[in-house]
Amino acid sequence: MSYKILAINPGSTSTKISVADGCELLFVEDVKHSRSELEHFHTIFDQYEYRKQHILQELERRNIALDFDATIGRGGLAKPVESGVYRVTPEMVEDQRTAAHQHPCDLGCKLAYEIAEMIPGCQSFIADPGVVDEMAPEAHITGLPEIPRICIWHALNQKAVGRRYARENNTSYDKLNLIIAHLGGGISIAAHEQGRAIDANNALSGDGPFSPERTGTLPMSDIIHLCYTSGLTEQQMIKKITSQGGLLAHLGTNDFRIIRDRIDAGDEKAKLLISSLIWNVSKAIAAEGAVLCGKIDAIILTGGMCFSTYLVNEIKKRISYLAPVVVYPGQDEMLALTENAVAALEGKQEIKVY
Prior knowledge:
It is built from 13 helices and twelve strands. It is α/β, with parallel strands linked by helices and about 350 residues long. The strands form two sheets. The chain has a seven-stranded mixed sheet with strand order 3-2-1-4-6-5-12. Strands 9-8-7-10-11 form a five-stranded mixed sheet, sandwiched between helices. Helix 12 (about 310-320) links the parallel strand 10 and strand 11 (about 325-330). Helix 11 crosses helix 12 (about 310-320). The longest helix has 24 residues, at about 270-290. One of its GO terms (molecular function) is butyrate kinase activity. InterPro entries: Aliphatic_acid_kin_short-chain, Aliphatic_acid_kinase_CS, ATPase_NBD, Butyrate_kin.
């Protein structure tokens, strides 16, 4: 039996949607939203109706009937959960609405749920949200009991490429030890031990290497000083760390292609910044080798930055002594969502209770 699947992935300035017949994507569309339009909304959840209408209009424009077997949304950041596929419930939607970490992905479950409610017999799911927590107890401990370490990472894409690597090597993900680095607007690096990510950084709000737009780990005493002297509010400081840092803060752009052009034109500052990013990513990958006690089947590089041959080759120079390095450029999140939905409908993947 073939299932018709609608996948929904809300991002900062777009809502990506796809329609699939089984696991075959019929189309993927990145529905753009201008910053001027989004500025009218006070909260992320205030954008819900606006984004929903854009999705329905795009489906109507393509003459796609609302007769889906399942909808699946990108999971939000409300609370830690196990890896897997979850049925969307009103409780989940409410938890995302009031989540401490507000991100457009929090809308994924509500969009999937409400559209599924329009269709008789349609089920709604999320899969491997960014707050999947499989970390070892040691990984949660910090030097302050009041602040345990959490992970907000690219669980959906990392799990998907881990399974892809296993398939391509005639084995299963739960038999492998992998270090997977997602290199995109945010950077997450995780140690996967036999199907569980036992250590991962908080790629959203200040942990790990700096990225094109996030600060990564910073000297704490200097951050405390900045909080008291900058005149910025708490929310402005959070925005500074999560979306105004990294390469953007140093170079005025988070577009790696533009930065590469500047390097080719002789921009020494840009060259140094990229060299530092490579340095810090490589160092973080090597650190996960210690978590796995050096027993590493492969290191996987994925995410949008991996389309840069220069960046990939420079990272390989620093880490290839640890294990074979495999590269899967980009992030095929729409296919990953679709595959999870189909597996759930076919009974091959447990549908977990939120």
